[in-house]
Design brief:
This protein starts with about 30 loop residues before the first helix and ends with a strand. The chain contains four helices and eleven strands, in the order αααββββββββαβββ. It has about 290 residues and is of the alpha+beta class. The chain has an eight-stranded antiparallel beta barrel. The protein is globular and about 70 Å long.
Length: about 290
Amino acid sequence: LAAAYGASCGVAGWAGYRAPQRSVRVPRLASWQEKGEFILKVLQRRSKEKLLDAIQNFKEVELRDGVASVDFGVKGGELDKKSRAPRNLAADGAFFRISEDLGRSANRILGLVRDLERAEKCRGALRYFGTADGALCPLNGTWRLLFTTAADATFSRNSTRGGAAVSNIVDAVAGTITNCIDFEPREDGKSPTLEQLRVRLTAQAESDVRLVLAFRYVKAQLTRLFGIPLGRRRVTVKLPVPAPLITRIRSIFNRKPPPKPYFDLLYLDNTLRVHRTGEGNIFVQGKVVD
């Protein structure tokens, strides 16, 4: 449950979400440096628009051809058997196993992410993270998931754990991140036994683009207890995060320090965030505007 991150994994709520199409007005520029910076901004904006369009196309193909089915744990395909890290759906060909069109659509997104990364340096993006001025950090706020290659952040109705909306709350003042998973009602309209998951992490800026993470706990909201329906009441259970715990235990026997979980920002502005985890998974997220 190590993932970070925002928006519904389904098509609901995504339809019609496109970057605004605007004409480019070229201002008078005093120097070649200013001209270069202006061209770079134009390229960034166009790359961003192409990326959002590609994600919309991916969702449309996914709706037609199907979604990768992932369940909890190693057996369910959520975690890698050896590392216990979130499985990379692109790297193991999961999208192409759904259909050739879905695999190609995912590859186009990943190519556009690389283009955006080359155009963006994210200088000073984490300057205020974890400080009293954290509200000035562009990472601060709530983010919805638009696309990911991470199996642990992929939910669908064709799996036993069901569909879910995934979001990510960053408190840049406190230096915390909360991954939110809200499961959809079952086909009969009833709430699932596991209704919500909240994964709390603390984070520390290691550079302009890297956040080192520490998983603290998981809160699970249940609609049943020992198989007994609770009606309108809910029970919240606080649990340790299993995957990092197993990794720490394994490191004792291997006599190697466990790897630090982290992610690197590839692109960040006031509406879009792209990052890569230490395991190589890509997340594209859109900011929720109040």
